[in-house]
Each structure stands twice: as C-alpha cells, then as structure tokens.
Write a structure and sequence with these properties.
The complex is a heterodimer of chains A (about 325) and B (about 200).
Chain A lengths: L5 E9 L5 E9 L4 E5 L6 H9 L6 E6 L2 E2 L3 H4 L2 E4 L11 H11 L4 H14 L15 H13 L5 E5 L7 H16 L3 E5 L3 H7 L2 E6 L2 E7 H6 L3 E7 L3 H11 L2 E4 L22 E6 L3 H13 L3 E8 L3 H9 L10
Parallel strand pairs in A: 3-8, 3-9, 6-7, 7-8
Antiparallel strand pairs in A: 1-2, 1-4, 4-5, 9-10, 11-13, 11-14, 12-13
Chain B lengths: L10 H34 L6 H12 L1 H15 L2 H24 L7 H17 L2 H12 L2 H4 L21 H24 L3
Classes of the chains: A alpha/beta (about 325), B mainly alpha (about 200).
C-alpha cells in the first residue's frame, strides 16, 4: 500500500489572537519536495509545528507515513529544522549532533561514523569542535540541518532553512537538499526564498491568513499564464493597436528589464531602429501561430518567438496582491 | 526545545527526565548547603552529632527540592518564564510569611478569636506552600526537640522562632509528599498537551 508521506485533513489550529491556520488539507507523496509559501504571519510555521508534534491541532487530523502526528512512530521518521533554532551554547557542534543522535536511539559507533560525515556535508567540518556560542547564525543553521538529518529521516521539515545564510551558503544548502531529494527523502520546505522552492520543489501551496489560497505543481503554476515574446522588425505603433483589435488578445511592447531572462530571452534595454519586443498573453499555441502569421502579413519581420516563463516571485505577488495579510503589516 | 521535542520520545519521558535532572542538581546543591551551614554553625557552637537526626534533618531539608521543582515545572506549563518566576516568588513568600506569623503570633497576646483567624490564615498559606513548615520540621528533627521536650523545659515564649509548638506534625509531612506528587502529576499532564 502506498501511504503518503504527509496526509493532512482539515487541520486547524486556532489561537485567541485569530492567528493559526484553518482547514488545511494537503497530501505529500513519498520522495516529493513540497514547498509551503505565504506572507509573514500566514500560519506556515504553525502548520509545520503541528506536523512535527510541537503543537496540538484544534481540529482535523494528519498522519506521517500513516502514523498520527505527535506519536513516537511518526516522529521516528522525521527530521525537523525549526525556524527559531537555539542550540546548547555550552556544547560544541559535534556534541549537539550527538545529543540528537542519542535521542534518536543511534548507537555510539554509528554516531561516531555518521556525525563527522554530516558536519562535513553541511559545511561545518572541523569547526564542529568549536563551542556553539562561537557560531554565527549561518553556522547554527547548518548545525540545525545536521541535527535534522542525523537519524537519516524519510521526511525532513525545513522551516526557513536558508534564512540566515549568505548567497554561497544558500547555494550549498540547496545542493544538500537536491542530494536529499535524489536519495528519495521527502522534503517539506517552508521558505520565503521563492527561488529555492522554484528550483527544488515538485509541488507547492500558498497560504494566506491561515488558509490555502492556491496549490499545485510548481511547473504548472509557473506556466499557467503563458506569455510569449515576439521580436519584430519594421515595427510601427499602428501594428500594436491593429493586432490587439484584430485578435482580441492582450499585447504590449515589452519594457526594459535587466533581469528579464525568462524562457532564455533577454529583453534588450534599447530598441535598435524599429526592432522591438512584443509580449502577448495567449491561451494556446495556435494563437501564437496566428499572431506570427498576422505580423508577417503586415509586412514586418519576425526575428524570434519564445515562450515567457513566469517566475514564482511574480506568481506569488500576483496571488497575494490585493488581499489582506495579518502578518507584520498589522 | 523546539529542535529536541520532535525527537522520537514520548513527552512524559521528557518531563520526567527534566524533573530528575533538576532534582538531582538541586539535591546536590542542598547537600552542599546543608553541610556548609552545619560546619559554619559548628565553628561557633556545638551542633548535634546524632547521625540519624542529621540524616532525617537532611531528608526534610532536601524534600523541598522535589516540591519546589514540581511546582515550578507546573508553573512553567501555565505561565510565561517571567510569570512563573513571579508566581513562585509570591508563593514561596506566602509560605514563609505564614510560618513567621504562626511563630510570632503567640507573644502578641491576641484574643483567642483573632488568634484562631490568624492560625487559619497561616494554615492555608502553609497548605499552599509547605516549604516553611518543612523547614521547621527539619530544625526540630536536627535538634531532636521532640525528645528534649521531656527532659528540659521547652518554653520558648521569649524566643518564638524556636517554639516547638509551631512544628508541624508527621501528618503534615505526608501532606507535603502528597502535595508534591499531585503537583508533579498535574505538571506532567499539562506538558503532555502543551504547545511548544
């Protein structure tokens, strides 16, 4: 029987302050990487804490690999990196990981073999012999990752795993997570770093004010609203209004954007002569072919056509714009 | 705590482990304190050297440790860290005050009715926080006041702090033990359901 790694049914946690999350239902299959997004105060950490057995749900139910959340059997299969980590400052890195290993019932010889490997993997290495009080935030976050992985979990909950890391550290953590994913470990990622979710996750959900707003496969979400770019020579403003009138599609001249490299197309900052980039939102590829034909029919030159891939950040902002957020802005 | 609690251990083991750790440390500290006080006192005046009395006195002295830790851990499940500190200080203060009033009420020459009311109040205070009463019992055991009362005059009216009449009975010691057990159990049940 194929039991999902995470199965939550109408999981709810209500606080007197009105925070928490309501009726959240998700299923994460084994080996999947799942991203949980949302503005600050949306209820992401509350939800992950319920799954990790730290807080009790007000209603609803959830199971990890078929075991109810909060039970020893469920906990035995997980690793958890909390957002607000605070490790024992009087211990050194190795000792902290060893403490976690002992709590997981890992024998001394196994721990002796595994801990140096883990510390090396997360980028702590020999500094594992330094006291935690001398660690930077980034080092502590790496240590937390080592602790989360010490029992070789089948499922890891990572609450903002890269928030305190510099760009190199983020890249290293992402590489570690990619390796975990390749090993078939299920990853549950709470992150503000949309790029991490975009690169790593198979599916994701967006939480706002404690409720799931949208969810689905990352690839589908990123390609849901298909925009296409057309590099057109011999352009005149008349063409744009004619095309819009004739096709009924939303078409605009693409604006300068230094970071605009979606779909492998970089929009140049200046138009050379009468060559411009047009951007059209279409419903099907047939409409793209039709637009091609119309542009050529008007006597203009079509140099290049490419699909614009929507970035997760744009999707995120689009999804939550206009909605009230109960987070830091309150 | 947030990193450790998701580890595969039932919560009652966490609670019991922390309780045992605190109690062990507390008892070691109590032993050190008890010995130091006796040694310092011995330098100035003879102290009883009856081994049985010393052991009984230390057991009563040390019995405060599990009692206070059980109460404090229950408080930590109900209040914030600061709130729990205030709660414990007030409770301990109330117990101490109850004991002091109890000791000093005799020489005040109050009417019987007023004295009864005062004793009821101090009794309630001692029931809420039996620490001071246990300390009085410890002093009585250390100096074997009960045995001495049949040999020498035990009239402490001029020095009410040593008044043997204010020493709690053995039943109160059993109450203290039950109190600690109940408070420990309540704390454990609270921790089982506590959101971390």
């Amino acid at each position: 029987m194929n039991v999902p790694a995470i199965e939550a049914q109408l999981l709810t946690k209500e606080y007197n302050s009105g925070r928490g999350c309501r009726d959240v239902s998700i299923t994460v299959e084994k080996g999947e990487a799942f991203g949980f997004l949302g503005p600050n105060g949306a209820g992401k950490s509350t939800f992950v804490k319920m799954l990790a057995g730290l807080i009790r749900p007000t209603s609803g139910s959830a199971a990890l690999f078929g075991h109810p959340i909060g039970t020893v059997a469920a906990k035995a299969k997980i690793g958890y990196l909390p957002e607000l980590y605070r490790y024992q400052e009087w211990l050194n890195g190795e000792e902290v990981v060893r403490l976690h290993a002992r709590l997981c019932g890992i024998g001394k010889s196994e721990a002796d073999r595994r801990i140096p490997e883990l510390l090396k993997e997360v980028g702590i290495g020999q500094r594992g012999r330094d006291r935690v009080k001398h660690y930077s935030k980034g080092m502590q976050q790496r240590l937390g990752l080592a602790c989360a992985l010490v029992n070789d979990p089948e499922l890891v909950f990572l609450d903002e795993p890269s928030s305190a890391l510099d760009p190199i550290g983020r890249m290293e953590v992402r590489t570690i997570l990619e390796r975990l994913k390749q090993r078939g470990i299920t990853i549950y990622l709470n992150s503000h770093l949309l790029e991490d979710v975009e690169v790593l996750c198979d599916r994701m959900a967006l939480l706002n004010n404690g409720e799931i707003l949208r969810h689905g496969k990352v690839a589908e979400i990123l390609n849901k609203r298909t925009s296409w770019h057309f590099k057109v020579g011999g352009y005149s403003p008349f063409l744009l209004s004619w095309l819009m009138e004739h096709t009924g599609l939303q078409i605009r001249q693409a604006v300068e954007d230094a970071d605009h490299a979606e779909g492998g197309i970089a929009i140049p900052s200046t138009v050379e002569g009468s060559v411009v980039w047009l951007e059209a939102e279409v419903e099907s590829e047939e409409q793209v072919g039709w637009l091609n034909a119309l542009i050529i029919e008007q006597g203009m030159t079509l140099y290049e056509v490419a699909r614009k891939k929507e970035r997760l950040e744009e999707w995120f902002l689009d999804a939550v714009s206009g909605l009230s957020h109960r987070g830091e802005r309150e | 705590m947030q990193a450790l609690l998701p580890r595969p251990l039932p919560r009652w083991k966490w609670y019991l482990g922390r309780w045992l750790g605190y109690v062990t440390l507390g008892l070691l500290y109590a032993l050190l304190l008890f010995t130091a006080i006796l040694l310092i006192a011995d330098a100035h005046a003879p102290i009883p050297r009856d081994g049985a009395a010393l052991v009984k006195a230390f057991l009563l002295f040390g019995s405060l440790v599990p009692l206070l830790i059980s109460l404090s851990m229950l408080g930590s499940g109900l209040f914030s860290a600061v709130g729990n500190g205030v709660f414990m200080t007030m409770l301990y203060g109330a117990g101490w005050l109850g004991g002091m009033i109890d000791k000093l009420s005799g020489p005040l020459g109050l009417k019987e009715e007023a004295l009864n009311t005062l004793h009821n109040l101090t009794g309630i205070m001692s029931l809420l926080m039996p620490a001071d009463a246990l300390q009085r019992k410890m002093t009585a055991e250390l100096f074997s006041l009960d045995e001495l009362s049949g040999i020498v005059s035990m009239n402490f009216s001029s020095f009410p702090l040593m008044d043997i009449n204010s020493v709690p009975s053995n039943s109160f010691i059993i109450y203290g033990a039950l109190y600690a057990v109940v408070v420990f159990t309540m704390g454990l049940l609270r921790f089982q359901r506590k959101d971390v």
